[in-house]
Amino acid sequence: DAGITQSPRHKVTETGTPVTLRCHQTENHRYMYWYRQDPGHGLRLIHYSYGVKDTDKGEVSDGYSVSRSKTEDFLLTLESATSSQTSVYFCAIGDKAAGELFFGEGSRLTVL
Amino acid sequence: SQKIEQNSEALNIQEGKTATLTCNYTNYSPAYLQWYRQDPGRGPVFLLLIRENEKEKRKERLKVTFDTTLKQSLFHITASQPADSATYLCALALNQAGTALIFGKGTTLSVSS
């Protein structure tokens, strides 16, 4: 299995609080991605990174920000969580743009 | 940007039959298209990649076709087994620059014995 870990795996928070999800990889892959998965919507791309300090928006980026200060870490931040951001968040890594992806186990976030 | 449609949310078949899943895209033809499998509570796992100049790709009991004229990929599982029950996702590049991958909503396959 690809060396990719997400933390926390589960989190419950209240509306309006900031939340940061971390994705850590040991594969030295250039590309890292954050997706959210919701019933009826499938897997949707939030933000992605194509190198240290290089990031771009995906399909559903509003309300989210990301940072990548090191190759191995990609952080997803919800500045002020809302109930609509309750979801399962998946991090993925790849060594080619839009190539084969390796996914983490997911982080389940509940915003009350 | 690209849009992906997986026509069936759910597909139920009997063990031993061939399952056929459909993936359609609406915009430009991507350089390649991928298929993933996702089990409940787990992240997706890569299965196959097919390039635009490949009509067909096989891996064990899996077969994928890619028709750029129809803007469609078909994913077949032959001699299906209950262990094949899962959600199958197709994926392709977000845009023509090919910087990221987007996914269809998936088709949940149930194989009954």
Account of the 3D structure:
The complex is a heterodimer of chains A (112) and B (113). Chain A has strands spanning 4-7, 10-13, 19-25, 31-38, 42-51, 54-57, 64-70, 73-78, 87-94, 102-103, 107-111. Chain A is mostly beta strands. In chain A, strands 2, 4, 5, 6, 9, 10 and 11 form a seven-stranded mixed beta sheet that branches. In chain A, strands 1-3-8-7 form a four-stranded antiparallel beta sheet, with no helix packed on it. In chain A, a hairpin with a 7-residue loop joins β9 and β10. The N and C termini of chain A lie far apart (34 Å). The relative contact order of chain A is 0.33. The model of chain A has no long low-confidence stretch (mean pLDDT 95). Chain B is built from no helices and eleven strands. In chain B, strands 2, 4, 5, 9, 10 and 11 form a six-stranded mixed beta sheet that branches. The mean pLDDT of chain B is 92. Chain B is mostly beta strands. The N and C termini of chain B lie far apart (41 Å). Chain B is globular and about 45 Å long. In chain B, a hairpin with a 4-residue loop joins β7 and β8 (72-77). In chain B, 0% of the residues lie in helices and 54% in strands. Chains A and B meet through β4, β5, β9 and β10 of A and β5, β9 and β10 of B.
How much beta of chain A, percentage-wise? over 45%
The value of Rg of chain B in angstroms is 13 Å
Q: Rough shape of chain B?
A: globular
Biggest sheet descriptor of chain A: 7 strands, mixed
Count of helical stretches of chain A: 0
Main sheet properties of chain B: 6 strands, mixed
Q: Categorize the overall geometry of chain A.
A: globular
Report how far apart the termini of chain B are. Answer: 41 Å
- Give the uncertain stretches of chain B in residue-range form: none
Label the structural class of chain A: mainly beta
Gyration radius of chain A, in Å: 13 Å
**Fraction of residues in H or I helices of chain B:** under 10%
Number of strands of chain B: 11
* Helix-strand sequence of chain A: EEEEEEEEEEE
- Describe the oligomeric state of these chains in a short phrase: heterodimer
Low-pLDDT parts of chain A are none
Structural class of chain B: mainly beta
Average pLDDT taken over every residue of chain A: 95
Distance between the termini of chain A: 34 Å
Order of helical and strand elements of chain B: EEEEEEEEEEE
Helix count of chain B, per DSSP?
0
